[in-house]
Design a protein that fits this description.
heterodimer; A: mainly alpha; B: alpha/beta; six-stranded mixed sheet; 21 helices; globular
Amino acid sequence: MSKFSTLLKQLPVTAFVGLLLTTTFIIMAVFAPWLAPYSMSESVGEMWLGPSADFWLGTDNLGRDLLSRLIYGARTTMTIAALATALAFSLGSILGILAAVYGGWVDQLISRGVDILMSIPTLIFALVILSVMPSTILMLILIMGVLDSTRVFRISRAVAVDINVMDFVEAARLRGEGKRWIIFREILPNALTPLVAELGLRFIFAVLFLSSLSFLGLGVQPPEADWGSMVRENRQGIVFGVPAALIPAGAIALLAISVNLVADWILRRTTDLKGGRSG
Amino acid sequence: MADTLLDIRNLKIEATTYPPGEPPQDITIVEGINLTLERGKVMGLIGESGAGKSTIGLSPAGYGRGGVRLTGGEVLINGRDVLKEGPAGLRNLRGKAVCYVAQSAAAAFNPAQKLMEQVIETTLLHKLAKRPEAEARAVELFRQLGLPDPEHFGDRYPHQVSGGQLQRAMTAMALCPQPDLIIFDEPTTALDVTTQIDVLAAIKHAIKTTGVGALYITHDLAVVAQVADDIMVLRHGKMVELGSAQQIIAEPKEAYTQALVSVRSIEHSAKAPTETPLLSVDNISAAYSNNAQNVLNSINLALSPGQTLAVVGESGSGKSTLARVITGLLPPNQGQILFDGQPLPAALKARDKETLRELQMIYQMADVAMNPRHTVGTIIGRPLTFYFGLSGKVRHQRVLELLEETELDASYIDRYPAELSGGQKQRVCIARALAANPKLIICDEVTSALDPLVADGILKLLLRLQARENVAYLFITHDLATVKAIADSIAVMHQGNVVRYGTRSEVLSPPFDDYTQTLLASVPQMKIGWLEEAIQTRSTT
């Protein structure tokens, strides 16, 4: 407990704000059915009503409660983004370390494959695949995860190449250790710090990417609520001076900033301590 | 009373540490230092790492490295207190009155600029001379420092000259603005002994002719005795002893100084080689790529069981490459290695687990030879599980035994490498090698990153373990003092060839070949005037 309280005391204001907002968003996502005042897909009033005591944020283009949709949307957006990031990380980091440890043609094969994937703009690539395949949530996670894993691969390979030539890895090799021990016990624990710092950043990119896809109509499909599609549904309102589209857009921006603040803080903490790898 | 250049009074230096999970703490690094230096004199600051010698050495420049603060006392240069100077005053002081020569010249030079530009930069910056005048002065300094072709030396880039020449160029850089005081921070530590002697002689000559005052920081007492008039011995940020170089070497008063003077006096009677060697290297040649020049040329060596073969040579002599060939990391392009009577497969992958177990290795840099994310228990325990299948209590018990054998406390078992000192880390590496119960341990410069007293302890430990476990060492080093202390037989390597090989007494007694002669004559001795003698002998032969 004392360790926790000193940690809290050293917490910079920015990190505190970031943690607070991120936690709020996570609570919203987890307890959505209990927090939302109305159902997600039910019309409960006139279309595009302004904020009132009944509808705190007003209603959307079909008369559904915006606040409820925002809360449910947090769940969809964050779940898909989190799962896609998790997939990107497991895939990218393991392939990256594999490429570094094996070297030679294995490295060439994986690295050139990644180069090909990266040479096509991500959004266009995702649009092409999604226009052929059904836009299910699983498909979204898979596509986003695989595309994002190319970025993680680059970082983890670079980190692992450095670690791979260190004496302790050579010592393990001289002992006769197999590749599994070298990857999971020698290299991975030492590559984790930079990778975890990258995790927060990649999560934000996933949120933004999903929102763009949904805005273009190829992401999460109605009546499911998701912040990107909410912007899309209410965008016509802007012409009539209805701010309904700006609210989910603001939520996206706020989430991006708050997670970024936390990621920055972690990054600074891990680079601050010179012996940081000891723990 | 002679002309006092530098007067340090009751100096106190502090720093703030940030232990993870705890509030920041102020710690005192240096306390109660008093020192006076006259113009034209050299003061040697000596101590092991963490003694505060560099921190004190940098104080006349009013500089604290990495968050270090000069908090108390006075540092007077020509009567002015450096600690009271503002940024403008310090700028005026640095490079004009005080110059600095760093340890690693290779890292201190800008690789994209010619040497001349960098040597005269400070002089021009402080408007101490016009460009032609400064260049003329630099050429004169190049000549004084014995650099080849002084007129055109400045036209070269840092990568076009050798390490020893670069170190001399940095000395020229410091002398060029004609400062009152130069701080030499371990200027020869990164150099080979045969190069060190030239640089030392050049530095000494330059100090004498220019009449500059100098602080000479080093951990090597034999080196500082050659250049310094007075020596201050430091430990844990406090002064241990201050005296003339003669007095410190001949009659040290404090116990710590006595230990420093008598370091490397290990006595070890060499054993005669046995009939059947444990390891025999037959006609091995190796190169780093197919059509590159050979790094090793037809090497023949033999090592008897339970004995020590020291492979000695300067950087680039191929001694570490030999270790890589024996361990299987670099398959040779010619010859074979017999281990225990059996031919050793050239490639690491072709060797069976038993062979790998019998041949262990200890590295120079203990901190990178251990996974920073593993505890000491895992590091030592892993070979036990891997080779002998030990686990649970049995393994724990054996790890404790190994810790005890290497004179480490049992409580270290749960620590991480970052929580150990340099000497303790090397002991853990020794314990890891021993855990495999090997017949041969390759020791690659295992003591060269350690302070003399700590290195001494490690060498004694290795000898004790050899007597008990009957393990053979292939001891790779550049340090002849270490070789004399522990070797049974010696191989001297030079440019990929073994130039001299035999038992210790054969190799170390005359008649010598030219290279071994130079090498032996270049090892600094704890004796005033050794440098002049060595230079003298060298020029006559």
